[in-house]
Amino acid sequence: MRPKNAALAARPDSESRERRDNRHEISIWSDFVCPYCFLAEGPLDEATRGLDVRVNWMPFELRPYPKPTLRPEGEYLQTVWRRSVYPLAAELGVDIRLPDVSPQPYSRLAHDGLLFAKEHGKAADYVDAVFRAFFQRSLDIGDPSVLQSVAEEVGLEGAAFAAALEDGRYAADHQASLALARQLGIRAVPTIIVGDERVVGMPELESLRRLLARRSSAEKR
Description:
Shape: globular
Structural class: alpha+beta
Strand order of the largest sheet: 2-1-3-4
CATH superfamily: Glutaredoxin
Helix content: 40-55%
Order of helices and strands: EHHEHHHHHHEEH
Number of helices: 9
Strand content: 5-15%
Number of strands: 4
CATH architecture: 3-Layer(aba) Sandwich
Number of domains: 1
């Protein structure tokens, strides 16, 4: 059961408020400063290609304010990227680099922007654009003006987007989404949930395909 005021946060991509359908739903909990969440886009896209599946991106903050964020020049990020992120990205064929924004930005505003994008049917495009802004262009995605530019790049109305971030209209829905994550016991990202099954951490393509196949078979019974 989800909190009542999480309705907006969990709204499906590209759907009007009135329309509902019977497609499968995959919820993926992610943070825009997590490189594995960006890398997870590829396997997720490939696993769902050609299927009647709705992907619902959900917000998670690895280091919410006022918890200090990490610095790219620090030993922890340098080691993780050298030993894990870069080899995995090379294997997947993804262009990614450790952003030089220091300290790393808080992601709350970027997640508020995701809720705006959901409401306007552009969530998937917005998510991909924010990831690329940070992990390919080293842009400060904690800066509202940067987020506005990213939103405009995917066809969202910039002034309306900026106003939504400034007036905090999505704050309650954002907090409801974080509360839902805690209720579901989500502690790491990416976490992908399909029905009552979940994949925690970087997903493997074949594992996702098997999960979707099991879900499809269960719904046909």
